[in-house]
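ok trying again, last paste got cut off:
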Amino acid sequence: MAKIVTLGEIMLRLSPEGNDRFIQSDSFRIIPGGGEANVAVSLANYGHEAYFVSKLPKHEIGQIALNGLRRYGVKTDYIARGGDRVGLYYAETGASMRPSKVIYDRAHSAIAEASPEDFDFDHIMEGAQWFHWSGITPAISDQAAEMTRLACEAAKRHGVTVSVDLNFRKKLWTSEKAISVMRPLMKYVDVCIGNEEDAQLCLGFKPDADVEGGKTDAEGYYGIFKGMMETFGFKYVVSTLRESLSASHNGWKALIYDGKEFYQSKHYDIMPIIDRVGGGDSFSGGLIHGLLTMQTQGEALEFAVAASALKHTIPGDFNLVSAEEVASLAGGNASGRVQR
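nice, full thing came through this time. structure:
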């Protein structure tokens, strides 16, 4: 299996029990998670050598985050230790017409204040086949944006395939800032993942589709995919299409384009959703595994969409499923019958 590197921030998520609201809770569960860390866990589950690169404080709270990764087989050799704090976020799980809610408490985290000297990216990328990052990482701080660029440059020097999940976060930066930072980074990217909103807010591309109204017509994406590929030279452009019918009920499918053919996955009706946090990351992890191990982009996409559909049934940020379980669902076994 492949050596895969991901770079980003792992935070501790503090969540009420079940569907409780913040204000009625007198205790929170601690759940480690964060974009690229979630991707690394998926890839470790699929048998890859998954390395997560970040910086965490030396104290016990930093160790909670580190142990959360090690528990599921993610390699932590390249995590620098130092700084003062682990980023936190509070997540309240919605239901029916009440949406889920996230409150960040992540300013001045160890990775936000890390310096490029904390990481030897040439050493990190040596022997790697894939490097994955998301738009959350350069949004954390200007230092993190510089670190992302240095990691991408090292990946290219070592012939590593680079993927990005655009992942626009309006609580971290403005669209103008995102476009100014993200567009120049696209020259390093081979595989671009993002929904229609991410493409518009991070790169300035707009699809012809009424997504808010639930009309995720694939036709609206063909033009934008072609435009993105012509502008940035990606090998693959990929988008998930989520229909948010309620907090508990989503439609879910995806599209992939390799410059020649478009492929649209089958559609999943996900109800009830147990936890949608990490749904996009589980898609990225499935896609990377698929593109590394499968013959066609269609097979890779079906694996990714099935992996992500399964994640919506699992509490927490991590997608704790095996490649066999995903392949079973992708192959049509969605009955949920007890496996005896």
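cool. Residues 112 and 141 are 5 Å apart (CA to CA). The first strand starts at residue 3 and ends at 7.
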